Every structure is written in C-alpha cells, then in structure tokens.
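Dear support,

Our group has been running a series of protein-ligand predictions, and this particular one with zinc ion is the one our PI (initials K.S.) wants archived with full inputs and outputs. We had some confusion internally about which version of the output was final, so please treat the block below as the authoritative record. The input we submitted was:
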Amino acid sequence: MAGRISGRTSLRSSRPISSGFLAWDPGWTDSFEDRVRRTEGHWLWTGYIDRKDGYGRFKPHHNMRAELAHRVAYVRWIGPIPDDHVIDHRGHPFTLRRCVRPECLEAITHEENIRRGNSPAGRNARLTHCPKCGNEYNELNTVFRSSGERRCRICRQAAKRAARTASAPGSRSSPHQATDA
Ligand SMILES: [Zn+2]
Ligand SMILES: [Zn+2]
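Confirmed final output from the archive:
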C-alpha cells in the first residue's frame, strides 16, 4: 500500500542506545544542524522526538540506526563520550530533553545516572501511564507542570470538576461530590 512512510516507521521501531561508541561524521553537518533551532536559553531539536522519553532522534541515513540527538550534539560540539558515561541534561525538565545545546549537556557515569533517575522527577519521567487512572501519557492527555513533570489531563479535569461542584452553592449534581479528593 502506497502512502506508508517507511522511514518514520523504522525510526520509531529502532531503539537508539544511550551508551556505546558514537563518532561524529562531518557528512552529517547539514542534516543535523538544519534540525536545531537555537533560542536564547536552549537549542531545540526540531526533528523527530519520541514522545515516550522526550528525547530527539537523529537518523543520519535511512538505513542507519537512529541516534539520540543530544548524544550526537555532544560528539559534534564537545568531543568523544568518555567510556561508561551517558549524556545527561543539566537539570532540564522533561519538556527540554529535546535540547541539544552543548552547554546544557554533561557526561555522567551510569552510577550517577541511576542516582538521578531515582529522584522523584526521574521516576515521573519514566512513567508511561498515569499512576492514578492508568491512562497512557500521550500527546492528548498529557499536561506538563512547570517542573516538567507530567500529569494526566483526565485526572486533572476530574479534579477541577470536583472542585467546581464542591464550591457551587446549592449544587445538587451529585451526593458524592468532592468525596474523592
Ligand atoms: Zn538546554
Ligand atoms: Zn490519570
């Protein structure tokens, strides 16, 4: 069937690895930098972004594996990634994991990465489903708090509705109003 975007499908299915050897290829310069929008604070990846993990993906060539855009940025502008290190964003919320600005990136050990991943923000970032109602965090139902943590729109709207109902004088909509807080 025509109309299938095979490049996109394979980009989604090939899981990039967060560690391992990666070398910058000068032949990637144009296609890589065309996808970087430099703002005053951060350099935003405008290419493919995986909504589950928030990281940008760079696929240098259609038959090559997708790489994490911020790892490519590191080897592009900083240098080789030290052995047994992963590239982390310096205190960036989930929404800014697409940032590829070299000043925002640092190479840390796996150990440090695990320590950071066990923080409350790290745990929230790993969730794929709302812990309250079980809905998947997707484009439509995910809202971001200023910290970058994700909240489910369905739960948030339910909470707002409950608050409105509870505060409306003379409301007879439900005898169970505001008991689910
Ligand atoms: Zn940044
Ligand atoms: Zn929910």
